[in-house]
Design brief:
single chain; alpha/beta; five-stranded parallel sheet; 21 strands; Lys/Orn_oxygenase; EC 1.14.13.196; NADP
Length: about 550
């Protein structure tokens, strides 16, 4: 009888990526890219492509004895053939939740600049895609970033006066005029289409993303599946277990959104709140309750709580959808910032603060730098202008440095409404038909249910709710669980949760995964010429990528 035991063994993936957002797409695309150029200069990119194509076919002359050695044709990088699968809790397509929220909020343009994208090919890939599709009209210029925003008076003062450390001249951001084209906001439609183009280019579309919710992750030898006692990841989902040699965690904020419950004293901690919603849990906007009252001709009032961009977007959208009046409460003074972080963290080439961050000695110091750089929520000037327009027309009431201290749900003939109290008290504040909390999500790795097993069996240090990863974004040196996005902020910096951190994290993870499988091949003792050829090619690539020495390439055969 034929042996059917091999046919019943579960499949072991090379890589499982948990999360199909931009960070997950950036990692998957980078693993499939032969010649990544998004973090290299043009000259480095040309040299890498030349050596990757001709390096092993060029004759090598030995310095000592003059002997010429001819090598064979190069082979593709190992990461090109990796078996990759992606698990996402909400959608079976790339960026499904991302696109859903943008559509729900009716957001036309991203906040990020053009050089923040998911493609590993070129630093200007998104810009090139816009021009190749004749969609440059969908780019929105970001003001107050590049030279023309500096007045003639300031230019004259710069030439005639020395700038002290705390002068206005010193506070001015220095962005080279040649980089003006980078400081535009891409439209949501353009960015989404570019992500689909990246996924299509690397054959990441059909069947790669699966809608499965991860419940647990463990790393150990799996009886009956592991070969030579190789430890594997067991990723348990709502559809059963899956097995992989490496796992990448790209889950964004990761934790579930929570509504501050201190103001809802009449409700228990587990009791649902009527006509209250967190911004990340919105299905329709405004809610059905508000829509019904608007249809019936009733005056509607909505309360939005939060100090970031999402809160401003909800206030603006509610007014555009026909809500009679919106009240917007912020517990801090309003912060007007073009981006989540300052330009010194995210500029195209001169990331001064990022350099300081990498030179920090401890994770405590890095955590302080990240918190200081991101601060609380902030609103870009474009949306601040919209809010001021709504205020001038009497459609919006904006109160800063104000907290919600008590809320009571009162049922009347016209339906239920919230009666609220604030600190400081606001005289004449009305009752509200609905309350939206745009208060963000607090990241805490200790509260993630699917990481409890990993925290018990392979514990690592944690700081401020963030895991203390290796510099390769690995859980531990001997545990190939990689983390990117907000959870990797202690290694990626203040821009880690943003699109800029997605590509940087993808580069580190891809290099580490390639090294991991190279090490596995060495341990398996791949024989003969194949092993020698692979070693020669890898030494060339390591040298070009700045991770090896050219002298290691000059071995005698």
């Amino acid at each position: 009888m034929p042996d059917t035991s091999r046919q019943t063994l579960p499949h072991v993936h090379d890589v499982i990526i948990i999360g199909a957002g931009p960070c997950g797409l950036a990692v998957a695309a980078r693993l499939r890219e032969k010649a990544p150029g998004a973090i290299f200069t043009d000259e480095e990119h040309r040299r890498h492509r030349f050596l990757h194509r001709y390096g092993r076919s060029m004759p090598l002359k030995q310095v000592r004895n003059g002997r010429v050695t001819c090598c064979g044709r190069p082979t593709a990088s190992d990461t090109q053939d990796l078996d990759i699968t992606v698990l996402d809790a909400t959608h079976d397509d790339w960026c499904g939740r991302w696109n859903k929220l943008f559509k729900c909020y009716d957001i036309e343009h991203l906040r990020s600049p053009m050089f923040w994208h998911v493609s590993p090919v070129d630093r200007d890939a998104l810009l090139g895609y816009a021009y190749s599709q004749n969609r440059e009209n969908e780019l929105l210029e970001i003001h107050h970033c590049v030279g023309k925003e500096v007045s003639k008076h300031m230019r004259k003062r710069t030439r005639t006066q020395k700038c002290s450390a705390h002068s206005a001249c010193n506070a001015r951001v220095e962005i080279n005029e040649r980089d003006r084209i980078d400081y535009f906001n891409p439209s949501q439609a353009l960015f989404s289409d570019h992500c689909r183009a990246v996924a299509s280019r690397y054959h990441l579309c059909d069947g790669v993303v699966k809608k499965e919710s991860v419940q647990d992750i463990s790393f150990d030898v799996v009886q009956g599946i592991s070969v030579n006692d190789e430890p594997l990841f067991t990723v348990t989902t709502d559809r059963g277990p899956q097995y992989a040699r490496t796992v990448v965690l790209s889950v964004g904020p990761a934790n579930q959104p929570s509504i501050p419950r201190h103001a809802f004293k009449a409700f228990s901690a587990t009791e649902s709140l009527p006509q209250v919603c967190h911004s990340t849990q919105i299905e329709t906007f405004p809610d059905t309750v508000v829509r019904t009252r608007m249809t019936n001709g009733q005056r509607t009032k909505v309360l939005v709580i939060g100090g970031g961009l999402t809160s401003a977007q909800l206030s603006d959208l509610a007014i555009r959808k026909g809500v009679t009046k919106v009240w917007h409460l912020m517990r801090s003074p309003i912060a007007i910032k073009t981006f989540d972080v300052e330009l010194s963290w995210m500029s195209k080439y001169r990331n001064l603060e990022q350099a300081y961050f990498y030179s920090a000695d401890t994770d405590e110091e890095r955590l302080q730098m990240v918190r200081a750089a991101r601060g609380g929520g902030s609103i870009p000037p474009r949306y601040h202008k919209k809010l001021k327009d709504h205020i001038s027309r009497g459609r919006l009431e904006l109160r800063t440095e104000t907290k919600l201290v008590n809320a009571q749900f009162v049922t009347t003939e016209a339906g239920g409404r919230w009666k609220v109290e604030t600190e400081p008290a606001i005289e004449g504040i009305p009752s509200f038909d609905f309350i939206y909390f745009a208060t963000g999500i607090e990241t805490d790795v200790a509260a993630l249910p699917y990481l409890q097993t990993m925290r018990e069996t392979h514990p690592i240090d944690e700081m401020g709710g963030l895991p203390c990863l290796t510099e390769q974004l690995k859980w531990k040196d001997d545990v190939p669980l990689f983390v990117t996005g907000r959870l990797a902020s202690l290694r990626l910096g203040a821009a880690g949760p943003n699109l800029g951190g997605a590509r940087t994290g993808a580069e580190r993870i891809a290099l580490a995964i390639q090294e991991h499988f190279e090490e596995c091949k060495r341990e398996d003792k791949i024989s003969g010429d194949i092993a020698a050829a692979d070693k020669d090619e890898n030494e060339w690539e390591r040298f070009v990528l700045g991770r090896g020495s050219k002298y290691s390439c000059l071995v005698e055969h």
